[in-house]
Amino acid sequence: MTLIYLAIAWLVGIVSADYLALPTAIPPATAVVALLGAMSSWRKPRLRLAALMLCCAALGSWRYQASQANASSETLTQLVGQQQVQLLGVVQSDPKRTDEGQQVVLETQALHNGTQTQRISGLALLSLPPYPQYHYGQRILAVGEITTPRAAQRPGEFDYRAYLARKGIFVIMREPSIRPVPGISGNPLLRWLLGLRDYCKAVLLRELPEPQASIAIGVLLGLQSSIPDATYNTFSVTGTSHILVVSGWNFTIVAAGVAGLTARLRLGRSTAFWLAMAVLWGYAFFVGPTGTVLRAAIMASLVVLARTTNRQTEPWTLLGAACWALTLYDPNALWDLGFQLSALATASLFAFGKLVEAKLKLFPPLRWSALAWVTEALTATLAAQILALPVILYQFGNLSLIAPVANVMLVPVVPYTMLLSTIALVGGLIWLPLGKGLALGAWLPLTWLTKGAQLLAQVPGAAVQLPPFPLWLLLGYYAIVVGGWMWWRRFAA
Prior knowledge:
This protein is 60% helix and 12% strand. By secondary structure, the protein is of the alpha+beta class. Helix 2 (26-40) runs antiparallel to helix 3 (45-72), helix 10 (291-308) packs across helix 11 and helix 10 (291-308) packs across helix 12 (337-360).
């Protein structure tokens, strides 16, 4: 449990640095003093733990300050208001695409001003039409006007400026004119993986009809840009939109598949471990290393490591280590909604999974072995919502009443969807007619997902829209739930 307390202290330190704006010298000084205090109280476990937690909180604050200093030093805000600014740079990451357009993060290298060229650094967000499509590592010249992102106009409103600032982006260019520049940059391996992903997307689109193809692309490749709005809305109404994104569930399936393969091939423990690591992280970079994907990959890697070393590692420890590692790499990931929901859902399963399962088994039909899959799906759905649902309601206000039924009907089909879609994709990569034949097997579970979501979304009262509520109410809910859980744990013990 010590690692959990230290991880929580680290996260608290990041949050405090964001809200308190501490002087730069305070976090490192506090960390040194706290570490000395921990060393001097080594024979007093509680005092030592408190000192180590203070040290971790200070280090978390220090790490966050360092990330913000690096970001703020590369701003382009001095160019705001100037017309026809010419920025030369490289597409920093895989662009986010929708039917309406694409968002390109440009890592600027130079500013062109007539015949003069000035070196400049920083990130700029380009809002562009859907075509032509741009790709990671591509060098371009963007010409247009630079503006600042829109800030929140009233309390509780989403602050787009602050959201982008945490990503190191302080300026926007809306529909600038783009001229490709010869040359290419970026990580060659990542560029190859993203190119392979786009090619796999094209293969699936040729093998399957719509919307089944788009669902397969979302489930397997983590790309939602091609999913029709009407289809996505049905999954959102039914509370099953998590199916359409790559999450910890996908990595669990991949890890299980690799484990089964290595066991069948009778590979050595070391070989099986490194093969699992290669597959998990290859898949992570293949679908795009977002905060949620990285957390899931780190969590899966720690589980594989624990099993390889035959250590009975507590799930809470794995979750704490995953969150710690991810925020150590990027402290701003803590404000990513996908990361928050993923971590909260996982913690909720750990905390309330057994309790929810026990309550469900009070109903005689759910005790039957034939309905074990129903009990498992309901347990996962209901338990995960205890901590994740309040954040969803706070951000979107959409409450799906049909979600428990929808998750029972749809979620168990996802592993078969991934397996059969993978088989169809591999067949299509070898020979397209072969892939089209194999895609018939994937069509059935994909149709089950799409038609099932459509039918359930049409149920009267499937979802309701709740009015906005203040942040203090959200925090109060978590205080009551966490306090009640800790009391229950103490009482149960």
